[in-house]
Amino acid sequence: MKKNFPISLQNRLALTYALFISLALVALTIIINIFTGIVFTSLVKTNIAGKSAEIVRAIGEQYNPMSRNFDTVTLEAMGMYFVHEGYIVTVEDEGGGLVWDARSCDMRECTMVINDIADRMEGRFGFRGGALRRDQYPVRFSGRTVGTVSIETYGPFFYSETESAFLTSINRLLVIATIILTCASFMISIILSRAIARPVNKSAEAARQIAEAHSGGSSGKPIIRIDDRYQTRELGELARSINSLAAELEEAERKQKQLTSDIAHELRTPLTCLRGGIEAMIDGVYKPDREHLESCLEETIRLAGLVQDLNTLTALEWENITINKTEFDLGSLLRITAEQFKAAAIEKGIEIKLDLMESPVNADYDRLKQVFINLLSNAVKYTDRGSVTVSVKGAADPGAQWEVSIADTGIGIPETDLPHVFERFYRSDKSRNRSTGGAGIGLTIAAAIVHAHGGNIRAESAETGSVFKVALNVT
Ligand code: ADP
Question: What is the pLDDT of residue 288?
Answer without folding.
Answer: 86
